Every structure is written in structure tokens, then in C-alpha cells.
TrEMBL record:
Listed GO MF terms: phosphatidylinositol bisphosphate binding
Residue ranges of every copy of the CRAL-TRIO domain listed in the record: 4-57
Topology in the lipid bilayer: Peripheral membrane protein
Keyword Zinc attached: no
GO cellular component, one term: endosome
SUPFAM superfamilies, sorted: CRAL/TRIO domain (SSF52087)
Stated name of the protein: CRAL-TRIO domain-containing protein
Keyword Cytoplasm: no
Source taxon at top rank: Eukaryota
Main location, first listed in the record: Golgi
Gene Ontology process terms (BP): lysosome organization
UniProt keyword list: Golgi apparatus, Lipid-binding, Membrane
Length: 58
């Protein structure tokens, strides 16, 4: 998967989760396992992609 695919999946999941009133009150912790993210995938990252990822996950 590309980083864009991964970010889309994360953002879709977050959008669904923020609809839950219990999560709105208590919050949640997001843990992402990047252990299978390869150097080949990382080499395709651009500064704008990284900025988008960081801003989206903040």
C-alpha cells in the first residue's frame, strides 16, 4: 500500500470514530504499527506528503 492509501484508511476510521459520543468525552489513543513499512515505500515520500500526514494525524 502507498502512504496515501494508509492515510486514507486512517482518516476514514477516525471520521467514523469521532461520531461516537463516548469517544468524544473520553478520547482515544491511536497506535499505528509501521513495522512492515518498507524502504521502497518510504523512498516515495515527498515533503508535501509528510506534511499532510503529520497535519492529518495531529
Amino acid at each position: 500500500y502507498t502512504l496515501v492509501d494508509i492515510l486514507r484508511a486512517i482518516l476514514l476510521s477516525l471520521e467514523a470514530m469521532i461520531e461516537d459520543p463516548e469517544l468524544q468525552v473520553n478520547g482515544f489513543v491511536l497506535i499505528i504499527d509501521w513495522s512492515n513499512f518498507t524502504f521502497k515505500q518510504a523512498s516515495k515520500l515527498t515533503p508535501s506528503m509528510l506534511r499532510l500526514a503529520i497535519e492529518g494525524l495531529q
